## 1
Amino acid sequence: MERTRLRDGFTLTFMLVTLEVLMEKRPFDIGLALERIEEAVRPWPKAALFQLAEEGYTSTFEQLLACIISIRTYDEVTLPVSRTLFARARLPAEVAQLSWEELDGLISPSTFHERKAHQILAIAQQVDAQFGATLPGDRDVLLSFAGVGPKCANLVLGVACGTPVISVDVHVHRVTGRWGYIKASTPEKALSALEAKLPEQYWIDINRLLVPFGKHICTGNRPRCSTCPVLEMCKQVGVTAHR
Ligand code: SF4
């Protein structure tokens, strides 16, 4: 009887210690985390704008048009739609000469294509008249166009121009919050928090890496924590159920 009690007490203590060790998190190392995530997302498609840049669509103008097409639209749609448009017209003067009907038809699989066709046409005409063939990588110029917000402008500046800027989308916001790396209630606040904390060398890459990571591993519902490469340092903030 006494021996059983001793053994049960020992087993319980052993289990608690094991649990504690398992729950102990190492301090968050952003460099190491992104290195591991780079490896983990290798099998999955790249985020649309990065993929298009790899295919040679690297100009500020092309990236801007692709970004507008991508708004509220899946990457699986953005990619073929952008390729179709660029096969027909790539330069500002070429796009400016399209009729609204033709442009709308070219981008029609994209969400809100009618409004986007008006925006793209207006941008192409303005760029052609003001800058000719080359749209400069200037944040204020990009933000002056109707339909272009800070997220789009930053993404374009990062991908097309290599300007160190952070683009915070739903994935970047959710994942960095779950890590416990930042605490922000909106993507706008997340941007300020990341600008204050994230080393500049990762500003462009954070979007490139966390978009596929957020789509396939740290998913909105039931993230795949059990096989996640950063589990040992992630605080799993707000995660109540996972795989
Ligand atoms: S451990 Fe879970 S919550 Fe944390 S990054 Fe990985 S998948 Fe996301």
Note: Residues 175, 178-179, 217-218, 223-225, 228, 230-231, 234, 236, 239, 242 surround iron/sulfur cluster (CB under 6 Å).
## 2
Amino acid sequence: MNTTQTLPTTARRPDNGADCLQAALAGARELPLRARMAAFSGLLRDTVPERARLYRRTVVSATGREVRVQDDPARPPRTMIMFGSNNYLGLANHPYVRDAVRRAVDRWGVGVAGPPHLNGTLRLHRELEARLAALKRQEDAVVFPTGYGANLGLVSALVRRGDRVVHDEKHHASFIDGLRLAGAASRVFPHNDVAALGDLLDQPSTGDTLVGVEGVYSMDGDLAPLAAIATACRTAGALLVVDDAHGTGVLGPGGSGAAAHAGVEHLVDAIMGTFSKTFSVVGGFVAGDHALVDWLRFYARSYMFSASLPPTVIAAVLAGLDVLERDPEPLERLWANVACLRDRLATIGIDWKGESPICSIPVPSSVDVHAAAARFHEVGLFINAIVYPAVPTGQERFRISLNAEHTAADIDRLVGTLATILEG
Ligand SMILES: Cc1ncc(COP(=O)(O)O)c(C=O)c1O
């Protein structure tokens, strides 16, 4: 089908190019499903060929400080410095973790072929849940197939119609999807605005109140003021749920997370985390008291009705926890790199607090974000350009993730290129 012919005028590609996708998608919204899908597909092909090259880049090596990227099947892959992955401690290809996974295959095979309440609980799953509970200083923990599923199951199991959910405006989509599933009323407070949260909590509610924040905000890497938020929740009798996807393994003593960093583990009702960042595999968990975790095991549908994680993944996370416990060096190197990037950015006039390994650089309107992303790519720096629909038009940014394996020379290269790009 020639998709452009099926589009209403408003759905056609505007000439300016930059905001075409957003405008065109808005116009296509009224079309029947098949035409809408075809229109979307056509738009992707017509309007973003150059940009699309920088999404779904084909990596042909293990993920580490460097990766090999295949731009063109006819040409050899190129080596790039990886500033786009959440492999904060370098566990994605760590020799100890690789060995543990190999041994797990020999001992346990590749999968369990079923959900946890039936045939899907190995001794490994129980061991991991106990280790995670200890890491988070909670009574118990439950492991989910993904971090997305952990948030979805957590929120939808805890709240019901008549309850209210109050969350930060920058909370992750998985949390929002959980509250959609629950059908509970939700109120949003401006990012990190504790006074606004307090005002919302002061308003009367007939049901329970659940407050959701991230320990480290995934897009910009800034921290939630957890101590003040926890106090506000206690005063109001609200439950506090912290998404510690990016704080686990990174913040707090021994990488125990954002709540420990803020000294409020005892004031948090549930801590959610993922295995897809520091542990560099896939999966998620929720830690809390026995009653909460027991409840989730039976009422979180994304746990109950989904197959258990395979032993290789569990073994990778257990081995990652061993590294965290036994070897402080990766965490020290990571924070040394955060300090290095903060200092180098200051030399080009960028004031970055460096609260986490995620550094978000807003792209000024004078800079074409797609051309700039292509420039990073050409010089061998793998970073993520965040554009619509991940952020509203006008709030484009470069998202840089540091890891323990980066060198000062890598960071110099990054900042040098950034300076050239921002100069225009
Ligand atoms: C803050 C936050 N919560 C939840 C998730 C979902 O986790 P996963 O990708 O492991 O399913 C992510 C992943 O992007 C995240 O950044």
Note: Confidence is low (pLDDT under 50) at residues 1-18.
